[in-house]
Specification:
- The chain is of the alpha+beta class and 100 residues long.
- Helix content is 24%, strand content 19%.
- It is built from 2 helices and 5 strands.
- The strands form 2 sheets. It has a 3-stranded mixed β-sheet with strand order 4-3-5, with helices on one face. A two-stranded antiparallel sheet has the order 1-2.
- Strand 3, helix 2 and strand 4 form a beta-alpha-beta unit.
- The protein is extended and about 40 Å long.
- The two termini are 12 Å apart.
- This is Alcohol dehydrogenase.
- It holds the Pfam family ADH_zinc_N_2.
Length: 100
């Protein structure tokens, strides 16, 4: 397992859980605070370089950490706050809990 931090688009951060782990690089961005022209350029670059890779029947599948019934939303939120999840935490109308 490794953890990371979202950083400005121009910065790269090294990720590792311990010195013994392999170092990985993640580039991230927050689009909300960016000017509209920057957002359009980012979407254009994604479309030009990546979008075609998802065609032809290939799909993206989210990584699901755990699923909680809606009645246990507070437990799901505590799991998220603890940063122990790896993947998405899902709230469901079902009554069982599953964890990866």
């Amino acid at each position: 397992m490794f953890r990371g931090t979202l950083v400005e688009a121009a910065r790269v951060t090294d990720i590792a859980t311990s010195e013994a782990d392999r170092v990985r690089q993640i580039i991230g961005t927050v689009m909300k605070s960016r000017p509209q022209a920057d957002k359009h350029a980012m979407v254009r670059r994604f479309s030009e370089h990546w979008l075609d890779r998802f065609s032809g029947g290939r799909s993206l599948e989210p990584v699901v950490d755990s699923t909680y019934p809606l009645a246990r939303a507070a437990d799901a939120h505590r799991r998220m706050e603890s940063s122990m999840n790896v993947g998405k935490i899902i709230l469901s109308a079902a009554t069982s809990i599953t964890q990866a």
